Amino acid sequence: MIDVDTLIHARWIIPVIPHSTTLEHHCLVVDKGRIIDLLPIQNAEQKYTGKIVEKLENHALIPGLINSHTHVPMNLMRGIADDLPLMEWLEKHIWPLEQKWMSEEFVRDGTDLAIAEMLRGGTTCFNDMYFFPEVTAHQAIKHGIRAKVGLILIDFPSAWAENSDMYLEKGLALHQSLLDQPLVSTAFAPHAPYTVSDDPLKKIRIFADQLNIPIHMHVHETEFEVHQQQQQTSQTPLERLDKLGLLTPSFIAVHMTQFSDKEIAHYATTGAHIVHCPESNLKLGSGFCPISLALAAGINVALGTDGAASNNDLDMFGEMRTAALLAKGVTGNASSIPAMTALKMATLNGAKALGLENETGSLSIGKAADVVAINLDELETQPLYDVVSHIVYACSRQQVTDVWVAGKQLLKQRQLTTLDVVELKAKLPKWQQRLAAFN
Amino acid sequence: MIDVDTLIHARWIIPVIPHSTTLEHHCLVVDKGRIIDLLPIQNAEQKYTGKIVEKLENHALIPGLINSHTHVPMNLMRGIADDLPLMEWLEKHIWPLEQKWMSEEFVRDGTDLAIAEMLRGGTTCFNDMYFFPEVTAHQAIKHGIRAKVGLILIDFPSAWAENSDMYLEKGLALHQSLLDQPLVSTAFAPHAPYTVSDDPLKKIRIFADQLNIPIHMHVHETEFEVHQQQQQTSQTPLERLDKLGLLTPSFIAVHMTQFSDKEIAHYATTGAHIVHCPESNLKLGSGFCPISLALAAGINVALGTDGAASNNDLDMFGEMRTAALLAKGVTGNASSIPAMTALKMATLNGAKALGLENETGSLSIGKAADVVAINLDELETQPLYDVVSHIVYACSRQQVTDVWVAGKQLLKQRQLTTLDVVELKAKLPKWQQRLAAFN
After folding, report:
1. DSSP state of B64
2. Mutate to test the interface with B, among A57, A58, A82 (most CBs of B within 10 A)
3. CA–CA gap between residue A316 and residue A141 (Å, rounded)
4. Which element (helix H / strand E) includes A123?
């Protein structure tokens, strides 16, 4: 018998690799934070002894969900300004609020709220873009969640940095300071084509190559953004980024609601990734990203919620469902984005986009044990014919019972193990009062 | 002091009438099943003594949600055939399964599962269309939920009736038998223009007038349906229904994904209603009902989930969110269908469509006490700036804690009071095995 840290027996396991496979009565064997085996329960009982043995008789295990586009501190602004178009929402509400309240404290409390929400909903990794990223990194490390922290860069001064050189300098220092962290690493995060000029983008391109860091950017979020730049410069934002040499397998374009057949064909040749944020795009009336066409062209498409101020949650179950339903509506083809594809977008495709596919994104031997257990025994997921269908089309995130990141249990029977919910909640009325008074 | 049955103190109350009103620290006073007062808590404490006093300090009260289009027994087929277009889904899966398994027992168990799911999710009234409606009516009465049971009629024989005369006869007998029921009444439910011929529709028109019964029908669900009939008869299904005299304030057209500006303008003059089923329309790739235009034209638009086989849940919180988000996406206008409009569609507009606006749909003095309490103290709905925003955009149905129908508490701290969940669950594996083996 081999001694290991944890054995997780489950009624169903969806490893994501291989595709469309649902294992029944299998055991995930975890040791030193990694998946070391995946085999039928009866075989596991003859081969392994676990310090901890979880028997999840009504549960499905899936890889930890990866939220590939977040602004986690914005959780403090959840629902503060709804039913408004993107530019009015940004210019009249979000930016003035940020101008007034942005601080380390704001970022710390907002990040904690978001991490608690994400873990309770089965998200084990997030790809963030916000100011004070060193605070977000610190909180992610503290609570044990996996993260790509964005090295934000924008042409305008903020409470965090005065100019693009200072953004870059602080970002590179943060990158350096995180090099020995197993779970938290960085991506460059130039905000958007319309807020970042050529010079800092060229520098980012060079550093990204040298340091092997992904570049995470809002691109073609609205038709307005594309037309405005076309009128000003006779090229689309995507053409500009291409000329600047940014479209490589390290590039992650978020939104892409404006994406022609020709652009899709070219983008596919670059190896760059797309993050689809269907609920935010709907809520801001921004348009539809043609993900069925993008996937068919071979582009890797991941999934994100965007910030809680434009969603208004960080619920990757809801996001999978919306992505699968919306693709069918937009194409008129009910076979578009079947449930398994939606689950893959929310796991493996996210890992690929973030350059983490060797670490996470599937329940594969050798990868980190980023694992989510879902109780399917609720009335809302009965009867059960197809586990993946229920996870995408019927399940809610409240059915997540247990979550592990790199083998460490962060949610245990719906209780967070590294975050004090009472203490966290006590910090929120202060922000509610401050922000509401100013809005 | 006046003695009453129940006082419900709540942090927030959204009565829906008047529109866009959120009361704080108010008390809903319930006696003999009806709302008899709604006033500040401090005033209520001086005026009323309740046999039961509920103090809901972190909760919002809303009117019970009205699911205006269901096929409740289809809960037994949740997730049995996904990612397929409407006609293939119907002809190759749903209809053969129904042909094989339709029975009183099927309808009873499926209805119980659906009622349990609806009550746990804050739905207090549903408008159903299915075979063996007397069984659905019986179960609704047994469990205390409000319902409009559809007197199904279709040109084809089924396990319930052999021909249109027999459907009509059995339907009228059921209508007669329910006349003294306070919570359960009927609507005619001719299935769809493409499955019901003129003769039975003319009879239904006459009986509906005489007996004052609404008519509930699938109309213009897909472009295919409209084009096919146009080719065969040179008129659209809607034109045909209009010529048959069906478009009156008693008519409820479900789906309407094909609805031109001209049709909208005419439909508005008839006083007939629309039920929007956004998730089912998306899932089957059926198209988008132009609800923003319909509402602007003065048409009453209610909200429904459709059956759990094409959704795959009966979650009116999800449906409100999808309706609000999708409308913004389709129009490109982020101000379309604000949160309060979505809540109104799911409550008052449903009551109007079903002819129940004097009984339910708002927390108004004189109406039945159909009430839902939502706990907003979860991390997922913090901080809180706008209660209605959170109910529509951030809340999940699991945050529903208590539900009353006509003053009787059917969900108490998330426990059903009239349904035995253990007994219900024990009946489901049998159906799972039968249906999976045949599919």
Report:
1. P
2. A82
3. 21
4. strand A123-128
Instruction: Assess contact for A424 and A112: CB atoms under 8 A.
Output: yes
Q: Tell me the chain B residues in contact with residue A380 when contact means C-beta distances shorter than 8 Å.
A: 117, 120-121, 313, 315
Give the residue numbers spanning the domain of B393. Answer: 2-62+371-405
Are B288 and B323 contacting, i.e. CB atoms less than 8 angstroms apart?
A: no
- Tell me, yes or no, if the pTM score tops 0.95: yes
Query: Which residue in the block uniquely carries the two structure tokens 């997780």?
Result: A8
Give the tokens for residue A318.
């809801």
Of B113, B379, B382, the CB nearest to A382: B113
Cβ contacts of B189 within 8 Å, gap of 6 or more: B128, B129, B133, B150, B151, B152, B153, B215, B216, B217
Residues B22 and B153 in one domain: no
CB B314 within 8 A of CB B71: no
Query: Does one domain contain both B181 and B139?
Result: yes
Nearest to B311 by CA among A6, A145, A418, A321: A321
Helix axes B133-143, B104-120, angle to 10 degrees: 40
Chain-centroid distance of CA A363 in Å reads 18
Task: State the best of A97, A311, A385 to mutate against chain B, taking most chain B CBs within 10 Å.
Answer: A385
For chain A, first and last CA: distance in Å?
Answer: 62
pLDDT, tens digit, 9 for 90 and up, residues B72-92: 999 999 999 999 877 888 899
CA distance A119 to chain B (A): 11
Q: Quick check: A393 and B312 CB within 8 A?
A: yes
3-state DSSP assignment of residue A303: strand
Q: Single out the residue of B209, B65, B203, B94 nearest to residue B158, CA to CA.
A: B94
* Number of H-type helices and E-type strands within chain A: 18, 16
Share of chain A above pLDDT 70, in %: 100
- For chains A and B, count residue pairs whose Cβ atoms are closer than 8 Å: 196
Q: Is residue B109 part of a domain?
A: yes
SS3 state of residue A415: strand
Q: Are residues B326 and B232 in the same domain?
A: yes
* Yes or no, beta carbons of A83 and B338 under 8 Å apart: yes
**Contact by Cβ (8 Å): A55, A376:** no
- What residues contact residue B11 under an 8 Å CB cut-off, 6+ apart? B24, B25, B56, B57, B58, B59, B60, B376
Asked if B225 and B217 touch (Cβ cutoff 8 Å), the reply is no
CATH number at B41 reads: 2.30.40.10
Using the predicted structure, report yes or no on whether residue A88 has a pLDDT greater than 90. Answer: no
In a domain, B364, yes or no: no
pLDDT of residue B370: 99
Q: What is the dihedral of CA B82, B88, B91, B96, to 10 degrees?
A: -30
In A, which residues are within 8 Å of B319 by CB distance? none
If one counts the domains in chain B, the total is: 2
Per the domain annotation, does B360 fall within a domain? no
Contact between chains at A335 and B429 (C-beta distance less than 8 A): no
- Tell me the per-residue pLDDT of A101-134, one tens digit each, with 9 for 90 and over: 999 999 999 999 999 999 999 999 999 999 999 9
- The strand pairing partners of A403, in sequence order, are A372, A411
> Do A20 and A121 sit in the same domain of this protein?
no
Asked if the structure places residue A420 within a domain, the reply is no
Q: Encoding tokens for residue A416?
A: 């967070």
ipTM confidence? 0.97
> Are A105 and A48 in a shared domain?
no
Looking at residue A284, its pLDDT comes to 94
